[in-house]
Write a structure and sequence with these properties.
alpha+beta; Aminopeptidase; globular; 163 residues; six-stranded mixed sheet; 4 helices
């Protein structure tokens, strides 16, 4: 557990545990609705969160707590890069409660990820993808020093149906 102080509040960053699965799943469903207008199946989402938390090889969640209240989260998953002989850490499932936005919560989550990735020794970089119309998030990521890439994401999704 790492603590940071900013002007407004103390932010404690910690890894999520199975006991946090319900709040993480709730944040995930809120994020999907807010950013992509998707209504996730809450039960499936809860099982997905529990599955990741039970299997660390898949990744991990970190949480930001402010005054004992979980204010934000993000998930890290791994992608092996043969070009770099290391793992990219993918930032996913980013969510900060609306009443906690603009107070440095994401900044502290991101800082924790950078610190841990550098210390891990086998991490070659940090990546994320963002919904193409989420301009606010894109601006935040650029302010954190992340750069746009020339890649676009393609997928075949067997679960979620998009219009």
């Amino acid at each position: 557990m790492i603590q940071w102080h900013n002007r407004q509040m103390e932010i404690v960053i910690r890894r999520a545990t199975l006991a946090d699965a319900a709040i993480v799943a709730g944040f995930n469903t809120a994020m999907a609705l807010e950013t992509e207008h998707l209504h996730l199946d809450r039960h499936r989402t809860q099982l997905g969160v529990e599955s990741l938390l039970a299997e660390p090889a898949r990744g991990f969640y970190i949480l930001a707590e402010c005054g004992g209240v979980i204010a934000g989260q993000l998930m890290i998953t791994y992608e092996w890069s043969d070009w770099r002989n290391g793992n990219f850490w993918w930032i996913q499932s980013v969510y900060v409660r609306p009443d906690c936005r603009g107070q440095g919560v994401y900044r502290q989550l991101y800082r924790w990820v950078l610190d841990q990735a550098r210390e891990a020794g086998n991490v070659c970089g940090i990546r994320l993808y963002v919904e193409k119309d989420n301009q606010r998030a894109q601006q935040v990521y650029e302010r954190m020093g992340m750069q746009r890439t020339p890649y676009q994401v393609f997928e075949v999704d067997f679960v979620l149906q998009r219009s």
